[in-house]
Design brief:
The complex is a heterodimer of chains A (about 110) and B (about 120). Chain A is built from no helices and 9 strands. Chain A has about 110 residues and is mainly β. Chain B contains no helices and 11 strands. Classes of the chains: A mainly beta (about 110), B mainly beta (about 120). Chains A and B meet through strand 3, strand 7 and strand 8 of A and strand 5 and strand 10 of B.
C-alpha cells in the first residue's frame, strides 16, 4: 500500500471549493517536493503542481497547492464539471529511494 | 511537440518476460531522466522505475526490484523496461513519463500507455 494517504473521494457543488489532503512522513513530504497530478477517465495523468505549490504553464490558476510539515493539500476553486477526475499526490521518498504516489482521490462535481 | 509512444505490451504467461519500449521525440531525450509508472485495472498509480538522463543511476520500486530493468538508448531516443518473472499482479497499463526541469522527480509529459496482461 502507498505511503502517502489521501481521502478516497470528495464531492462538492459547481463553483465551490474542494481541498484534497495528502499525508506522508519525514522521508517523503517532510523532506522533498510534492507533485499533484490529475487523471481524467481513460487518460494519462497530467502534472498540476510541482515543487509543492507551483503551477506548470497552461494549468488553470483555480488549482493551488500547499504543504506544511509532512502533509500537503491541493485546492480546486470554482469547481467545474470538467474537474471530475482522480487526483494523486506524489513525492520522492528517501527511505524507499523511490518516487511514491498517493492513494488517489476521486473528485465528483454534484 | 513532445511525444512519448509506448509499445511492446501484450499477454504473457506467469513467469514469462516482456520488453516495453518508449519512443521519445520533440525534446532532447538525452538531457532528461525518465520514469515508468503503471496502473492496474481500476487501481491507482504505482511508480515502477526511474533512470537518470545518462543512465548513470537507476531506481526501482520494491515490488519489481530484481525482476525489472530500466534502460535507455540515447542514440535512439528510446526508453526500455525489461520485465522478467512476470506475475499476475504485474498486469497493468504501463506509462513512460518524462522528468521535468524542476528537479523534483515530477513528470510533465506522459505516453498513452501500453497494456500488459499476465495470465495463463
Amino acid at each position: 500500500q502507498s505511503v502517502l494517504t489521501q481521502p478516497p473521494s470528495v464531492s462538492e457543488a459547481p463553483r465551490q471549493r474542494v481541498t484534497i489532503s495528502c499525508s506522508g512522513s519525514s522521508s517523503n513530504i517532510g523532506n522533498n517536493a510534492v507533485n499533484w497530478y490529475q487523471q481524467l477517465p481513460g487518460k494519462a495523468p497530467k502534472l498540476l503542481i510541482y515543487y509543492d505549490d507551483l503551477l506548470p504553464s497552461g494549468v488553470s490558476d483555480r488549482f493551488s497547492g500547499s504543504k506544511s510539515g509532512t502533509s500537503a493539500s491541493l485546492a480546486i476553486s470554482g469547481l467545474q464539471s470538467e474537474d471530475e477526475a482522480d487526483y494523486y499526490c506524489a513525492a520522492w521518498d528517501d527511505s524507499l529511494n523511490g518516487y511514491v504516489f498517493g492513494t488517489g482521490t476521486k473528485v465528483t462535481v454534484l | 511537440q513532445v511525444q512519448l509512444v509506448e509499445s511492446g505490451g501484450g499477454v504473457v504467461q506467469p513467469g514469462g518476460s516482456l520488453r516495453l519500449s518508449c519512443a521519445a521525440s520533440g525534446f532532447t531525450f538525452s538531457s532528461y531522466g525518465m520514469h515508468w509508472v503503471r496502473q492496474a485495472p481500476g487501481k491507482g498509480l504505482e511508480w515502477v522505475a526511474f533512470i537518470r538522463y545518462d543512465g548513470s543511476n537507476k531506481y526501482y520500486a520494491d515490488s519489481v526490484k530484481g525482476r525489472f530493468t530500466i534502460s535507455r538508448d540515447n542514440s535512439k531516443n528510446t526508453l526500455y523496461l525489461q520485465m522478467n518473472s512476470l506475475r499476475a499482479e504485474d498486469t497493468a497499463v504501463y506509462y513512460c513519463a518524462k522528468d521535468t526541469d524542476y528537479g523534483d522527480y515530477g513528470s510533465d509529459y506522459w505516453g498513452q500507455g501500453t497494456l500488459v496482461t499476465v495470465s495463463s
